Amino acid sequence: IPTAQRDFDYFMFVRQWAGSFCSTHACPLVPNRGFHFTIHGLWPNYSNGSWPQFCTPEDKFDEDQLEDLMDDLEVEWPSVYDSDETFWEHEWSKHGTCALDIFPSEHSYFGHILKLHWRYDLSAALRKADIVPSRTSVYRTKDLIAAIEDMYGARPLVHCGRKRQLSEIWMCLDKDLKPFDCDTSQEGNACQEVVIPPFKSRLDVDQL
Ligand code: 5GP
Ligand code: 5GP
User: Fold this and answer.
1) Does residue 43's CB lie within 6 angstroms of at least one atom of ligand 1?
2) Which one of 20, 37, 108, 206 is separated from 80 by 20 to 30 angstroms, measured CA to CA?
C-alpha cells in the first residue's frame, strides 16, 4: 500500500525496452532506434514491497530547471506514447519528490539518473552475452539476468509483457546508489523466456 512518507529503504532503477511497445504501435518520436534502453524511472522502495509516492506535492515539476539536461533527457528518457514532459513530470511528482533526502532538487534527481543510466548500460552487458534484439531469437530470462550480474555485480528483475516481449529491466540500488541483488519474490510478471523485438521503421508500423 503506497504511502506518502519520505523514508524508504532502497531504489528501483527501471529501464524500458521501447522496441516491444513500438513493435505494435507507431513511435515516431523515439530518437534512437538501435539497441538502446530508455529510462522509466528511479523509484524509492520499502523492503516489504511497498513504496512511498507523491510525497511533496508542493514541489511542482519545473522544466526550466532541466535546461542543460534536456538534450540528454530527450534521447535517454523519451515517452513512447505521451509528451516527454508529461512523463518526466509524472516521475518527478510520484517518485522524485520522495527522494529529496538523497537528491535535494529536481536537477540533482534527473542528472543523477542520467549518470546511472550510462554507468549501468544494459545493452552493453547483454550484447557481451550475444543477447541482442531479434525477430527470431528467444532468450532465457536467466541468461539476461546472468549477463547483467556478470557486468554489474547484482541481479536485476526482468519484466515481460504480451507474447513474452521484454518490457522492462529493474535494477535494485541501495541509498548510496550501489547495485544489489533484487528480491525475486517481488517479481511481478516473470517469463522464463523473452523475446527482444527490434524497433521497426515507421514504414513497418504503417504496414501493420
Ligand atoms: P505496474 O502496475 O505497471 O507495474 O506499475 C504501475 C506503477 O506503479 C509504476 O509506474 C510505478 O509508479 C508503480 N510501481 C509498481 N511497482 C512498483 C515498485 O515495486 N516500486 C515502486 N516504487 N513503484 C512501483
Ligand atoms: P509509473 O506510474 O509506473 O512510474 O509510470 C507510468 C506512468 O507514466 C503511466 O501513467 C504512463 O501513462 C506514463 N508514461 C508516459 N510515457 C510512458 C512511457 O514511455 N513508458 C511508460 N512505462 N509509462 C509512460
Assistant:
1) yes
2) 108
| Residue 51 near ligand 1, beta carbon < 6 Å | yes
Q: Helix (H, G, I), strand (E, B), or coil: what is residue 26?
A: coil
By residue range, what is the domain housing residue 54?
A: 10-206
Q: How many independent structural domains does the chain possess? A: 1
Q: Is residue 181 part of a domain?
A: yes
In a domain, 1, yes or no: no
pTM above 0.90, yes or no: yes
Separation CA 196–CA 205 (nearest Å): 17
Distances from the Cα of 151 to the Cαs of 129, 166, 179, in angstroms?
10, 20, 11
What's the 198 CA to ligand 2 centre distance in angstroms? 21
CATH number of the domain encompassing residue 37: 3.90.730.10
- Tens of pLDDT, residues 94-120: 999 999 999 999 999 999 999 999 999
